[in-house]
Write a structure and sequence with these properties.
Elements lengths: L1 E7 L5 H10 L3 E4 L3 H11 L8 E5 L11 H10 L5 E6 L2 H11 L11 H18 L2 E4 L5 H12 L9 E8 L10 E4 L20 H7 L3 H23 L4 E8 L5 H13 L5 E6 L20
Parallel strand pairs: 1-3, 1-4, 2-3, 4-5, 6-8, 6-9, 7-8
Helix pairs in contact: 1-6, 4-5, 8-9
Length: about 300
Amino acid sequence: MRFVIVTGMSGAGKSSTLKMLEDAGYFCVDNLPVPLISKFAQLLFQEHAEYDKIAIGVDIRSGQGLSDLGPFLEQMKQKRQPYEILYLDASDEVLIKRYKETRRTHPLAGSGRVESGIKTEREKTAFLKKEADYILDTSQLLVRELKQQIDKIFVQNEAFHSFMITVLSFGFKYGIPADADLVFDVRFLANPYYVPELKYKTGNDREVQEYVMQTEAAGQFLNKLEDMLKFLIPNYINEGKNQLVIGIGCTGGKHRSVTLANAITRRLSVLEYGIKVEHRDIGKDTANVVLRPSEKGTL
């Protein structure tokens, strides 16, 4: 039997996750009072139980009963009844934004500020996060990306990496990404924009990649960046961080930053972490391009 406890911060996607698990064939129960979870589990772990995939939602709405979940989990360990904990998290900024967009009231905020409710909730659910088998930070995840992660863990049974790295290319002229933890400026590298046959290509094209990486400085930068990130990431993990956004910027976010973002992603992909690459501004200039007569036919 697979017994999954879905918990975490309010607004981080617990309800959506339970729906995804239900679609995947799990029998799902949300907001079951903690005192009843023990009785529910006893029925499920009977020898001829009807269900073999169960997911229950537990969150701060359980009130004071949430503290009773710890002893219950300890009992399950003693009885050798296997369970898994999925903890859904998101940054305070994202959670506040979601509450404002939906005009909902945080369950612990009452008539006060959402920020205070989030702070209290983090304190009350800290023991669950510490015990969690999987921690998913949904701050930067689209619904389809969340579903992909849920399917990998609970349907395809693939290895899960609780530390997620996002390598994000961007253009400085469009602003530095607000969610970037680290920002690197690669505007010192040769710019393909001034090469007619490369101007309208991107860092996803081999010709642009070769042009950007042809200098010794580009190779040295990539090596030093890789070394620094390999040093930083374990230290971030030790401090409890479960997500890292690495911003790599050039002028327009189309050539140099895309090339370097792709390159460092390939190098970090061999590590035991989840990693994805995004190119925020790669297409922003394309819609507004007006070819001069001398440039026609160079695409």
